[in-house]
């Protein structure tokens, strides 16, 4: 993982950060690193996630999913951190296993998905750390029923990833299903390099060991200085720019296979740093596509946005055929990859020319090792940014109100006063 901060400097951009300020900030990075290392050493909640490249057990994961290793199709049933990591790997890595992620409760989508699946050759990986998330459990009950209706034994096709206890754990025990435990102290959004993200990867035949090795590559560089650690360089710079007005961070990967990575990043950044009235708003984008939709705003709108450019240094390529069409011959001499890189560098430069802050993040290739580096790197960057902002990076209390209101509206057992507030909604309907 390579991070270039050049276009975030105040000599280029406003908001921007000066080298001198980064050097001063490095003292706080050193103190934060000490705190993070202490948290890792004691396997404290949250910090333990940064130990996963060492603590995850690829052999145990592969052995547990073995009963469904013959699958032609896979349905990952989960939501948030229990889906986005596996979805990111499935989007970025090739596999013969047709992979679907059921991370919403849209009946039309679920019906279409189930109708098209070869259920007898389909594996189900149902993932929920708490084991109580309504969307995940509802989708799983629907998927299970579809298998039963098709006369396929779902207990033969299901692998569960969940915590020590809870309804999903009970269901797995009742039906003696293969279970992978979600590691203690690892919040969902930091769990891609654990059983949560790696079970599906193992079923798909991805190189789980290489993913973890990528994580170790970046973990090795974590030190008390942002000038020695790409992950900390990124985390510290987003913090510095946020403090100077860049309250929005547009994540712009230049690889179709990294589109879901931008979604994964959005949860990591939003749920970790969005608290106490603070937090940089992540925006999901895709390069070069969103140059033609969002760039106008980032280049000429309010000076409240930084852009994070991500690209692989190497990729497969395809030549653009020669053409005699007037004015297009320049394309005929290039490849799609060269065009994409030109768009990347030109868009970076266009923001710098307009004095708009941006950071470049590169990985060697979009493969298991590169992804392990990128995902772990962004997790470490987020943990550092949380330390510098002084927020509790590893909790997300604000999401519970809505869950309780939904439970109340559906008549779940227990008291859910939040549901009353839904009923009492202020109305000013225009139709
Ligand atoms: O893994 P679980 O417990 O089903 O939770 C799914 C997701 O829901 C959240 O709790 C937010 O509602 C996320 O933090 C988490 O990743």
Summarize the structure.
It is an enzyme of class 5 (isomerase). With 431 residues, this protein is α/β, with parallel strands linked by helices.
Q: What is the strand arrangement across the widest sheet?
A: 1-10-9-7-8
Class by helix and strand content?
alpha/beta
Q: List SSEs in N-to-C order.
A: EHHHEHEHEHEHEHHHEHEHEHHEHHH
Low-pLDDT stretches: none
Strand content: 5-15%
CATH architecture of the largest domain: 3-Layer(aba) Sandwich
Q: In words, what does this structure look like?
A:
The structure is a single chain. With 431 residues, the protein is an alpha/beta fold. The protein has 2 domains: 2-37 and 217-389, Glucose-6-phosphate isomerase like protein, domain 1 (Rossmann fold, 3-Layer(aba) Sandwich); 57-182, Glucose-6-phosphate isomerase like protein, domain 1 (Rossmann fold), CATH 3.40.50.10490. Helix content is 45%, strand content 12%. It is built from 17 helices and 10 strands. The protein has helices spanning 19-41, 52-55, 58-65, 84-92, 107-115, 134-149, 167-174, 195-204, 208-221, 230-243, 259-273, 295-300, 329-332, 336-353, 368-389, 400-409, 418-423; strands at residues 2-4, 73-77, 98-102, 122-128, 158-162, 179-181, 248-253, 281-284, 305-312, 358-363. Helix 4 (84-92) runs parallel beside helix 8 (195-204) and helix 10 packs across helix 15 (368-389). It starts with a strand and ends in an 8-residue tail after the last helix. 6-O-phosphono-beta-D-fructofuranose binds at residues 79-82, 128-130, 133, 136, 188-189, 271, 396, 399.
């Amino acid at each position: 993982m390579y991070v270039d901060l050049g276009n975030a400097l105040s000599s280029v951009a406003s908001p921007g950060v000066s080298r001198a300020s980064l050097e001063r900030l490095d003292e706080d990075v050193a103190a934060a690193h000490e705190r993070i290392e202490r948290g890792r050493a004691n396997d404290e909640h949250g910090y333990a996630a940064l130990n996963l490249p060492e603590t995850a057990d690829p052999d145990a994961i592969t052995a547990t999913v073995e009963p469904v290793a013959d699958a032609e199709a896979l349905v990952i049933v989960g939501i948030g951190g229990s889906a986005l990591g596996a979805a990111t790997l499935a989007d970025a890595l090739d596999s013969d296993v047709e992979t679907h992620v059921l991370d919403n409760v849209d009946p039309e989508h679920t019906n279409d998905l189930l109708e098209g699946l070869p259920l007898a050759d389909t594996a189900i990986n149902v993932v929920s750390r708490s084991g109580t998330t309504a969307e995940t459990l509802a989708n799983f009950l629907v998927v299970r029923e579809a298998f039963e209706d098709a006369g396929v034994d779902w207990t033969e096709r299901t692998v569960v990833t969940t915590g020590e206890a809870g309804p999903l754990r009970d269901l797995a025990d009742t039906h003696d299903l293969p279970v992978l435990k979600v590691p203690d102290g690892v919040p969902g959004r930091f769990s891609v390099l654990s059983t949560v993200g790696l079970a599906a990867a193992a079923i798909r035949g991805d190189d789980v060991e290489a993913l973890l090795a990528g994580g170790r590559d970046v973990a090795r560089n974590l030190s008390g200085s942002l000038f020695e650690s790409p992950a900390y360089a990124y985390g510290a710079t987003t913090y510095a720019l946020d403090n100077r007005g860049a309250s929005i961070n547009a994540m712009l990967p230049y690889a179709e296979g990294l589109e879901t990575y931008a979604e994964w990043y959005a949860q990591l950044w939003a749920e970790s740093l969005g608290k106490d009235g603070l937090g940089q708003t992540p925006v999901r984008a895709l390069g070069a596509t969103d140059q033609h939709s969002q760039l106008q705003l980032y280049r000429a709108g309010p000076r409240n946005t930084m852009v994070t450019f991500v690209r692989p240094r190497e990729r497969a390529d395809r030549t653009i055929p020669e053409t005699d069409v007037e004015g297009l011959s320049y394309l005929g001499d290039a490849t799609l990859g060269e065009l994409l890189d030109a768009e990347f560098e030109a868009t970076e430069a266009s923001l710098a020319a307009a004095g708009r802050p941006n950071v470049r993040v590169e990985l060697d290739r979009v493969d298991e090792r590169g992804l392990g580096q990128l995902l772990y790197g962004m997790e470490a960057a987020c943990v550092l940014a949380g330390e510098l902002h002084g927020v509790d990076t590893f909790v997300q209390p604000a999401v519970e109100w809505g869950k309780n209101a939904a439970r109340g509206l559906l008549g779940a057992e227990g008291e859910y006063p939040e549901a009353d507030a839904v009923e009492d909604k202020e109305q000013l309907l225009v139709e």
